[in-house]
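#help-structures
NK: newbie question, is this the right format to request a structure? protein is Inositol polyphosphate-related phosphatase domain-containing protein
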Amino acid sequence: MSSRLFAAALALGGLSVGQTTGNFNFLTYNVAGLPAIINNNDVPGDKGTNANLIGTILATQKYDIVHMQEDFNYHAYIYATDNHPYRTPTSGGVPFGDGLNTVANYDWTGLVRKKWNKCYLNSGDCLTPKGFSFMRMKIQSIEVDLYNLHADAGSDQGDVDARSAGIDQILAYINANSQGRAVIVAGDTNDRWTNAGRSINKLTDAGFSDSWVQLIQGGKFPTAGATANPCKVPAADNTCEIVDKVFYRSGSSVKLTAKSFNYIPEVFVQPDGNILSDHNPVLVEFSWST
């Protein structure tokens, strides 16, 4: 085949040679999939119907990567209407699964699920194997290590200690498995920067950037113990703070840059305008270069 024909074939196939820059979007969303008999999450409507709608919206919006938390007993309803080509298999409903799933337009290898070494009974945190998942995803011509987490909930000292231990655990895993690699850590941290006993600062101390702090707060971290500015659901704007976070760092050969950050509750609504979850979905646009 001549070089001209080879180039034409690549173009028709949507491929590129030596691609050194690109973009992708990333969504994290706690989908409130606990059984309704345990927690209705103060969300109107039937949970199965709402989960169907979440799947439909994921398919329609064609997000590149979606991390979900609390994807427990209505997982099949989401997957019935979502059409992403790559989707993690469920680890089970309550009390067997961790509720962590990912759907994406890109393939991955090495899916691992890890239970937190420490949990605290308050808020039912020990009723399911909460923890984090890991995968290595091929995004266009780069690889990014992705971590999806759901941290211990609650405000008792036992909760604070369990969250801190969880951050230590995931950082140890990152240090052992993602040295020198581009990494995104996202999910439900059950923590805010204003919490007096916060532990998410350990991630930024380890070299990660918080996309909300960087893009919305101008790089200024809220003070621990300061008056909180929590978001309602739906969030009125991006300046309030939620527990759902997207942290990232570059690698030795891949530079990641967060270009935009938005809460998008207006996208995930029922036909009558009601919310689909008691969490705001978070959308971050990334660019990359090598």
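mod (FA): yep, format's fine, and the tokens are attached above. The chain has one domain: 18-289.
NK: thank you!
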